[in-house]
Amino acid sequence: MSFRSPSILPGFGLTLGFATFFLSAIVLIPLAALVAKAGTMGWREFLEVLIDPRAVASYRLSFGASLLAATINAVFGFIIAWTLVRYDFPGRKLIDALIDMPFALPTAVSGIALTAVFAENGWLGQYLAPLGIKVAYTWVGIVVALTLIGLPFVVRSVQPALIEVQRDLEDAAETLGAGRFYVFRKIILPTVMPALLTGFAMALARAIGEYGSVIFIAGNLPMKTEITPLLIVIKLEQFDYTGAAALGFIMLVISFIMLLSINLLQTWGRRRLVAAGR
Amino acid sequence: MSIRLDQVTKRYQGAPVVNDVSLEVAEGEFFVLLGPSGSGKSTLLRAIAGLTGVDHGRIHLHGQDVTHVSARHRGVGLVFQNYALFKHMTVGENIEFALRVRRVKAAERLKRRRELLRLVALEGMDDRLPTQLSGGQQQRVAVARALAHKPQVLLLDEPFGALDAKIREELRRTIRQVQRELKITTVLVTHDQEEAFALADRIGVMNLGRLLETGRPDELYARPATRFVATFLGAANLLLAQQTPHGIRFGTTPVRAQPVDKVDSTREHEVVAVLRPEEVELAPSRDALQTNFIGNGIVEEIVFTGALERLRVRLAGSSEAQLVSTSADNQATNAVLEVTRTQHEQRAFPLSVQQGVAIGVRRIHVLPTPLSSYTACAATSEAAQRIVQHPFLTELAARMKTRITTRVEEGLAQSDPNKTAAERISGVAVIPAQGQTAQQAAWLFANGAGEVLILPAHTGLPQRVLIHWADDHARRSTLAVAASLLRNVPAEAIYLGIHPGAGDERRIAVRSLLDARTEAQAIHGLEMRTELHFGEAAEELRKQLSEGPEQMLILGISSIEQLQRDYASLFATPGNYSIMLVYRPSKESESTERTDTTRDAAQVSERAAAQL
Question: Is pLDDT above 90 for B191?
Answer without folding.
Answer: yes
